Amino acid sequence: MFLKVTKAGGYEYAKIVHNYRENGKIKQKVLLNLGRIDELKNDPSFINLVDKLQKIFLSSSEGTGSIKLFPEDVSEGIIKNWGYIVYRKLWEELEIGKFLKQYISQNSRIKFDIDKVAFLMTAQRLIQPVSKLQTYYRKNRYFGFEEDIDLNQLYGGLDILAQIKEDLELYLYHKNRDLFNMVVDVVFYDVTTFYFESIKQDDLRDFGFSKD
């Protein structure tokens, strides 16, 4: 296991990579995308992760390796959000990316990764709902989202999801039913409660209790 540095869009990105042999050839598997190096150097959560990995690695049966990072001193910086990894696991369990990519394969006009775009919007909505513009500005808070996503792709992703909304809902229903061995007799659909705040009254609005 070692740290690999790649360049994209004028930045350097760090990944934890594992070498393995397949059919007599040495191949690499990316275990974790860590993010931009210029941000990681000053990220205490990343330094803590490296410290934990170092201890695990040195206590392994090999016991001779080490994880080398940066020669510079590190200092306090912005803490990245790792909480989305839980949502990523659920996303993969439900194979939502597979469903989206099957749709993309039938539409050659779509040139971006709808799986990555849709998951970023979903993760942001679950963690802290904001506009798509703010989602774009905040994407660097999540490891693995620094590359290849621009604002127009977020807006384009909304159009795609709107087109396949019913198919996606049906797919997720069947996926959950099979995954959890559910026997469904009745489905309840919860709609958002709404009310008016006004000093005027008309045929639609009336003073009294909100419609719960």
Automatic annotation (TrEMBL):
It comes from the Bacteria. This is Transposase. It comes from Caldanaerobacter subterraneus subsp. yonseiensis KB-1. The lineage of its organism: Bacteria, Bacillati, Bacillota, Clostridia, Thermoanaerobacterales.
